[in-house]
Every structure is written in C-alpha cells, then in structure tokens.
C-alpha cells in the first residue's frame, strides 16, 4: 500500500483559536498535543498542520474530523497533507551557496536526507531543495 502522510492540514481555521484547535484535536484523536502530535499554525494561509509523532491512521483521523460537529461548526476543512520531495527555504543570506544548502539539508542532525537538487532563487532570498525521497525533508 502507498505510504500515508503523518500530517493533516486544517483549512479555514480563523473561527477556532490556537488553544481551541489543540484541545479539539486532542478530543478527536484521544492523543496529547506535543507528546503525540504537534500543531503548526500558518496564519498567512489560514491553515494549521497537525503532525502525528505517534503512529495513527491519519486517513481515519480525517474521516473522524469531517464527521465531528465542532469541526463542521467552525467550517474547517481537514485533509491529508501531501508527501513532497521538495521544500522552500526562505530568508536566506545573499552569500548562501547551493553546496552549503546541500550539505546542511543532508545532515541527519538537522533531520535531513539525500538531496538531489538545489535551485537558488536569489531575487526571493530563497531556494528550492529537492530530496531523493519524501522522508528526507524537514
């Protein structure tokens, strides 16, 4: 079977504050925030991402969320976060090199893995880092 993402994205979170969202997710999952899963807010996109440290069936979790009264009341949309092989690193110094980024993102200490490509975007002070597989990105 295909590998499933350990992360669930929640769209339209403006009606549910950060603390409320964490408690809601604890109630639905019967797990504990920070011990069993983390929640990252991305306010400029009006989304939050729950990443499960403890192994769970995230497809089943999304189904439970879709059926939950409060999730529907807040008009939030949960869905599996797609697995990706590429990330965008932002706010990079002008002097950064693709070699430095390759070595940095291949470091196991930084949670990285084998890098297949680095595309510098100097006009945006960013870079697109592509890994050999989706497990090697942080």
Automatic annotation (TrEMBL):
Highest taxon listed in the record's lineage: Eukaryota
Family annotation (InterPro entries): Nucleotide-bd_a/b_plait_sf, RRM_PARP14_2
Domain PARP14 second RRM: from-to ranges: 4-82
Protein name: PAR14 polymerase
Taxonomic lineage of the native organism: Eukaryota, Metazoa, Chordata, Craniata, Vertebrata
